[in-house]
Amino acid sequence: MTQSSITSRGLMLALSSPSGAGKTTISSAILKAASNIVMSISVTTRSPRPGEEHGKDYYFVTKNEFHTMVEANDLLEHAHVFDNYYGTPRAHVEKELRAGRIVLFDIDWQGTQQLKSNAGDDVVSIFILPPSLEELEKRLKTRGQDSDEVVQNRMSKAMAEMSHWPEYDYVIVNRKIDQSIAQTMAILTAESLRRSRQKGLEAFVESMHRAV
Ligand code: 5GP
Fold first, then answer.
1. What is the chain's Cα-based Rg?
2. Cα 92 vs. chain centroid, distance in angstroms?
3. Pocket around ligand 1 at a 6 A CB cut-off
């Protein structure tokens, strides 16, 4: 028996942050950096926006199809956002985990809580904080023509999301993007080496005992 017989169960990485804290940049960077990280693709009842593709951005389904999935327990978590429903298909995630891959979720605190209660130990959660309130405000003023009201509205949404940081396993303050990306990768490396995720360890060590 060789070390290669130790296979690893993947994990679900829930990455949350207030908008403007750098979550999208970190997600894109880690997806590019590691071939064993894949994005979870949600199902939604909303219509595709220009440029969005079925099976790439979302699986676009009817409300009936969505409710059938909920009733069949085919979704790991789901939410009603504005007038539409969103959810995470269980089968795709389960297949990726069995193949040892990391499934990345770009979801808010509510989705993370649901994932944790439905998928427990398979979930690792990271919350990204902005380096300061001033910097967050600067990043939220993306377009020069935004009115104060629009910016204030974004700020209060960001503050509400930010209040949920204590519910996460790890917190990264995004001061320097390269460092935050490296820290995210370090968390993933450590979590992948957790004893509970390495299948076949017992047999591997036993085989060494037998060999002496
Ligand atoms: P949008 O329609 O702009 O793509 O997404 C609207 C909202 O739905 C965003 O806040 C997004 O994070 C959330 N969302 C997208 N997919 C899922 C999902 O699978 N589960 C949950 N809980 N929320 C989702």
1. 20
2. 14
3. 42, 46, 77, 79, 81, 86-88, 107-108, 111
Count the domains in the chain: 1
Domain of residue 28, residue span: 3-40+102-211
Q: In testing the pocket of ligand 1, which one of 58, 86, 105 has its CB within 8 Å of the most ligand atoms?
A: 86
Domain harbouring 19, CATH code: 3.40.50.300
What confidence score (pLDDT) does residue 1 get? 66
| Shortest-distance Cα residue to atom 15 of ligand 1 | 86
Mutate to test the pocket of ligand 1, among 15, 42, 66, 81 (most ligand atoms within 8 A of CB): 81
In a domain, 155, yes or no: yes
pLDDT in tens, 23-41: 999 999 999 999 999 999 9
Written as one letter, the residue type at 47 is S
Q: Span 175-185, mean pLDDT?
A: 97
> Has residue 132 been placed in a domain?
yes
